[in-house]
Structure prediction request, 136 residues.
Amino acid sequence: MLDDNDLAIEDSAHYIYYAKGLAFNNGSQGDVLEITVDGNESNKQRLTLELLTGKFHRPTKAKAILAGVRAREVRCLVGNVTSSGNVNISDLSADKGALFTPVDQSTARFDVNLSGGSINAVDLALVKSRIFDSVP
Prediction:
């Protein structure tokens, strides 16, 4: 069982805040930890996500199951569907190419406004409004 205090999020200014939501989902490539953060806090930032030690236990035993590296650095940039670190014409073109396709695991990155149904003109407009944004 996860709650919002099981993950610490630290931005580049060393401000710590917590996820708005956490969920384990069974994806096609195994279990996926889905993290929901506030877009206003996270956009155009490099964040360190750290699963807090001692919080994860097997349901039948008190022994912790979390081992190894617990912190990962991620970049957050609204509209950067190509993961280049910059929102540019390539992102606009990629999002346009995905227009009207249903959102699934392979197309989720194009669903910029997180509507969940299909990639639409709102997603394309949001990418366009972020052109030239970048993240370190």
Notes: The helical segments are 39-42, 89-97, 121-129. The chain has a mean pLDDT of 79.
